[in-house]
């Protein structure tokens, strides 16, 4: 079994910064990609940023230039550095991973979510 555990959410003022972390643990053979999604009440979960094992990244247009995703392959951890935060960034942020638990078996995994609130 694989677990994803997020940390780093909280309350920040507009224009401030936060860094989210997501650590994958358990039966991990390899990680294809990890990413961050966010979801507000009554809204669909949307992609914020994703990074592949090769280092390729993808960002939502709304966060380009403000957010940076990175990963520590040795620690199976992905980070989301969020700068110039806006009130509309307020959401629950979820970590997602496409992870092989063996050479031939992979699944999509989700963390439990961490709340980010941007407010003065």
Number of strands: 11
Approximate helicity band: under 10%
Class computed from helices, strands and strand pairing: mainly beta
- Tell me the fraction of residues in β-strands, as a range: over 45%
**Could you tell me how far the N terminus lies from the C terminus, measured between alpha carbons in angstroms?**
40 Å
Write down the secondary-structure element order. EEEEEEEEEEE
Task: Calculate Rg over CA atoms.
Answer: 14 Å
Shape assignment: elongated
Low-confidence stretches: none
Short description:
The chain has 120 residues and is an all-beta fold. 0% of the residues lie in helices and 58% in strands.
Q: What does this protein structure show overall?
A:
- This protein is mainly β.
- It has no helices and eleven strands.
- The chain has strands at residues 2-7, 10-12, 18-26, 30-39, 46-52, 57-59, 67-72, 77-82, 91-100, 106-110, 114-118.
- Strands 2, 4, 5, 6, 9, 10 and 11 form a seven-stranded mixed beta sheet that branches.
- The protein is elongated and about 50 Å long.
- The termini are far apart.
- The model has no long low-confidence stretch (mean pLDDT 95).
